[in-house]
Amino acid sequence: MDIEQEYKLLLSLEIPKEPKRKKTWLEITKQPHYENVISNLYQFYLDNEEEHDLKDLFLTTFLEVIEERTGKKLEFSDYSVNTEISTNNNGRIDILIEENDASKAIIIENKIYHNLNNDLEDYWQSTLASPNNKAGIVLSLNKVGINNSNFFNLTHSEFMNRLKKNLGYYIEECDDRHSIFLKDFITNLSNLNNSHRNMETIKFYFKYQNKIDQLVVLKDKATEHFISEIQKAISMLDTEFVSKKGKNTFNFRAPNCENIMFWIERYNDPGDVSFCIGLFTVNQNKKLLQNIFNNKEIETICKEKGVTIEFEEDKKIIYLAWKEYDPSPDNYVDLSNYLTNTINEDWKELTKKIDKKYEAQQCI
C-alpha cells in the first residue's frame, strides 16, 4: 500500500467527537475542581434555611440514596451542615450533616481528582451517633473501591441524576437567580465527570499516533510552503511586504500604489482550503474613501470582478473590499503564480483607479 492510500485509509475513519461543553462560572474562575469549593456548595444547598429556597431537596435526595444502599431510614429535623470537621486522629471530614444533639449523622468524603487514602474508620468513630443512626458516603467523580463497610460509594453524577428527578415542586419555590446557580453547579460536575469519561479521542490518537504525527508534519510543511509562496508572489508583483500576523495573514502594498494595501488571509477552519484577498488603508480619510467607492466606475469594476465593497474600521485601519478564492490542490502547488495572476486580473485595475482618485481628491 503506497503512502497516499495509507493516508486516505486513515482519513476515511470516523474521528470521535468531543461533546460540546458550556463553560460554568466555576470554570471561568478557574475553580471547577477544587474539592473545598465543591464541598462549600454542597453545604450551602444542604442547609434548608439558606436563601436558595430549595428547602430539603439535597438532604432528602441523600436520605433516599442512603435508604436504598444501606436500608437505614434516617430522619433529620434540627441539624447543621459543616465542612472540614476535625476528627479524633487529626483528619478532616469534608462534609458532616449532623443532628444538633449528635444522635444522627451523615459523613461525606468528597473526592474530585484526589485518590481515596483517607482514614474512613477515624471519620466514623469521630461522630457520636450509633452505627444504625449514621451513614458514610464517598462522593466521587468515578467509581472507587472502599475498604470500609460503613461507607458506600456514590458518584456526583448518580447523585445529581437522582436530585434532578426530585426537583419537582422544589424548583417552583426557587427564585430564578438560584435556579440558574443550581443548574450551573450541576453542569460543572457533569463537565468534570465528562473530562474523565470522554476519552475516545485520546484512544483514537494513540491507536493511530504514527500516521497522525506524519500528517501533522505534512501540515506544517504545507504551511511553510504557503508562507514561502506568498513571499514569492510579493516579489513577483514587485511590491513591498508590510507585515504578517501568525501563519495565515499577510499584508503588502498594492503594486504601484501609495495609499492602498492588500491583505491575504488563509482560513483555518477544518477542511476549508479557501482564502480571502482584500484591500485596506492605514491613517487615511474614511469619508474621502467612501466617496471614491460610491463612484459608478469603481462599483462597476467591483461587480464585474466579484469583489465585495465593505467598509470596516479597526483603530487606524480601514478595510475596504474583499473577495474569497477557493484554489485547487494544483493551484496551491504553484501558489505564487496563482496569486500573481489573480491579483493582476481581479485587482490591478481597481487599485490603480482607487489610488488615482484618492490622490485627485486630496488635491481638491
Give a description of the structure:
The longest helix is centred in the middle third of the chain and has 28 residues. The N and C termini lie far apart (70 Å). The chain folds into 2 domains: 173 residues, no CATH class; 152 residues, Yope Regulator, Chain: A (2-Layer Sandwich), CATH 3.30.1460.10. It is an alpha+beta fold and 364 residues long. It contains 15 helices and 11 strands. The radius of gyration is 33 Å and the shape is elongated. Strand 6 and strand 7 form a beta hairpin. Helix 4 crosses helix 6, helix 10 packs across helix 14 and helix 11 crosses helix 15. The model has no long low-confidence stretch (mean pLDDT 86). It has a 6-stranded antiparallel β-sheet with strand order 6-7-8-9-11-10, with helices on one face. The protein has a 5-stranded mixed β-sheet with strand order 1-2-3-4-5.
Regarding quaternary structure, how should these chains be classified?
Answer: single chain
Number of helices: 15
Please summarize the sheet with the most strands. 6 strands, antiparallel
Low-confidence stretches: none
Q: What is Rg?
A: 33 Å
Mean pLDDT reading: 86
Query: What spatial form do the alpha-carbon principal axes imply?
Result: elongated
What share of residues is helical? 40-55%
Total domain count:
2
Strand order of the largest sheet: 6-7-8-9-11-10
- Please report the total strand number as a whole number: 11
Q: Element order, helices and strands?
A: HHHHEEEHEEHHHHHEEEEHHEEHHH
